[in-house]
Amino acid sequence: MIQEKIIGNSSAQDILLRELSKIKFFLLMLTCVLLLACSPLEKNDKDVVVNDLSLINLTYSYLDGLSGGIFKFDVVTETNLSDYYQREKYKYSRLKCDGIQNYVVVGSVDIDEGRIENKKYISQGYFKFCEDESMNICAEKEQVEKMLFKDISCKIVFGGITQKSKTVADNIIISKNSIIQSSDKRE
To answer: What is the Cα 59 distance to its own chain's centre?
Structure first.
């Protein structure tokens, strides 16, 4: 059959290589289709977005030896984010907020170390105002108060090395007033 396809100066090896290339391409496309068909659907993603989340107990701490201060808070929700976090094997839960002036808001929430009180799930978190995500140079509370002109909009994002990041709450507002009124604890 391959010998019948020999045309002009083409050798049988050239034709065989072309046919093998076509087979490889077909197998590659078939594999891609199968992988896409077998990938898990994001059917639970819509169920995970939390609308009842709130931040409470905002405090400010200054730790000797660290640049700037840390704002600590509790996240309260009726949704058990820890189950989803552990089931999907996420490695981090970050608080991502709008930046202010030349600073970014760097934060985290300990979703996997939460507690239950009165049928509500409570997790602790923190955030800092820093020049970049390395947190080498961060602002103290007095500097933050001077920079803030409006409330800060934030979201909680789960992620990992191999997972696509997932926003689980995107309607979090930290008011300028709550930052100003946060209790100051020197540690």
So the answer is: 24
Rounded CA-CA distance 71/15 in Å is 69
Distances (CA, A) of 151 to 35, 71, 75, 179: 44, 15, 17, 9
| Residue 90, CA distances (Å) to 81, 108, 156 in order | 11, 13, 13
Residue 2 has pLDDT above 50, yes or no: no
Judged by DSSP in three states, 168 sits in strand
The phi and psi torsions of 90 (rounded to 5 degrees) equal: -70, 155
What's the pLDDT tens digit per position in 125-150? 999 999 988 888 999 999 999 988 89
Count of residues making up the chain: 187
